[in-house]
Specification:
Layout: E1 3-5, H1 9-19, E2 22-24, H2 27-32, E3 37-40, H3 47-56, E4 60-63, H4 71-83, E5 88-90, H5 98-108, E6 115-123, H6 150-160, E7 164-172, E8 186-193, E9 198-204, E10 215-221, E11 224-227, E12 237-240, H7 241-244, E13 256-257, H8 262-265, H9 282-296, H10 304-322, E14 328-329
Parallel strand pairs: 1-2, 3-4, 4-5, 6-9
Antiparallel strand pairs: 6-10, 7-8, 7-14, 8-9, 10-11, 11-12, 12-13
Helix pairs in contact: 3-4, 4-10, 5-6, 6-10
């Protein structure tokens, strides 16, 4: 890491000093420096503008979720990424959970049969991040987190290889929990996919609850099911018809712990270094894939099209809720 950019001069100077990097407070000067990659971890309202600037400067871009806030911004990022010499990757780390990779391999092998339903929730009480120390609303407290549904949707699309066709959403009024904040307490989203599957996702950064588990996933297919942990000692679990038998009134087939399959299906992930990355081992594997793509000239693992397959439904879900639950078609950026 050779350069850091932040609008807070004291903070960026302090961290840059610890890392032996050059601090910048102006984006243009930062992009003119001798760097190859720009990792964008700024507030969501800045993502599109900064991604476009970095791509136009010839840099590879790893952009935090969500990629932008509007369809017009999405068009700008896609156009820049299509024309850029570098690659764009959406940093959706939840796609890289070990359990998601195991379920993905089950799905690819056809063990679930046709997957026709899924759930993906991001429920994370962020009360401590709504206001800064001066009592001013942060970007989260100003309402920019409604589009933050990629943590719930991303793994569902990765597992199924599907794309969202339509979204419809409703919001719970903010007065229920915090009348001082100008956005819904939560969004509940109904999704149909191109293949005809139905997903339900929930985006909620306000409901007071324990932080033991902030994401939840469910996959239901013709021949198998998967559910992630809910908390309180629960574990990720699965059932497959071809291996575990069928439940009926006279026979109760049991859930099986998904972790029992890790050694067999993803033995390469038994890596002690991987836990240093954060979010379990997800950050490590995500960065490994990104750096491999940059070094070896490989396609981006979550490029501008797949990145907006994840981001656009979340953006349009917020718009649907504003319109009282109107169903909205989700465009395919490959046709832009």
């Amino acid at each position: 890491m050779t350069a850091l950019c932040d609008i807070d001069a004291a903070v960026v100077a302090d961290l840059a000093g610890k890392l032996g990097a050059t601090p910048y407070t102006e984006l243009d000067a930062f992009l003119e420096s001798d760097i190859d990659i720009v990792a964008i971890a700024s507030p969501i309202p800045n993502h599109a503008e900064q991604s476009i600037a970095a791509l136009n400067a010839g840099k590879h871009v790893l952009c935090e979720v969500t990629a932008c806030e509007t369809v017009d911004e999405a068009r700008g990022v896609v156009a820049a990424a299509n024309a850029a010499p570098g690659i764009f990757m959406l940093a959706e780390n939840c796609n890289y959970y070990d359990e998601i990779e195991v379920v993905k391999q089950f799905a690819d092998a056809g063990r679930f049969g046709q997957i026709y339903y899924g759930e993906g929730d991001y429920v994370h009480d962020l009360e401590g991040l709504w206001y800064d120390t001066g009592g001013n609303r942060t970007w989260r407290g100003a309402g920019h987190m409604g589009v933050y549904g990629t943590h719930g949707l991303g793994p569902l699309l990765y597992i199924t290889g599907d794309r969202v066709a339509t979204v419809r959403a409703i919001g719970v009024a903010q007065e229920v929990v915090r009348p001082d904040l100008p956005f819904p307490t939560m969004h509940l989203v109904e999704i149909t996919t191109v293949s005809g599957a139905v997903f339900r996702t929930r985006v909620d950064i306000m409901s007071p609850r324990p932080l033991e588990s902030t994401t939840f996933f469910l996959i239901q297919g013709q021949n198998g099911s998967y559910e992630s942990a809910r908390g309180l000692g629960d574990c990720a679990k699965f059932w497959l018809r071809d291996e575990h038998g069928v439940s009926s009134n006279n026979h109760a087939s049991a859930w099986r712990p998904l972790r029992d399959e890790y050694e067999r299906i993803i033995p390469e992930r038994a890596n002690a270094v991987a836990v240093t990355g954060g979010h379990g081992t997800a950050e490590f594997w995500m960065l490994r894939d990104f750096f491999s793509a940059v070094r070896d000239g490989l396609p981006s693992p979550i490029d501008q099209h797949r990145g907006f397959d994840i981001s656009l439904p979340c953006i349009l879900a917020v718009e649907s809720a504003r319109r009282g639950g109107e169903m909205i078609d989700v465009p395919d950026t490959r046709s832009w």
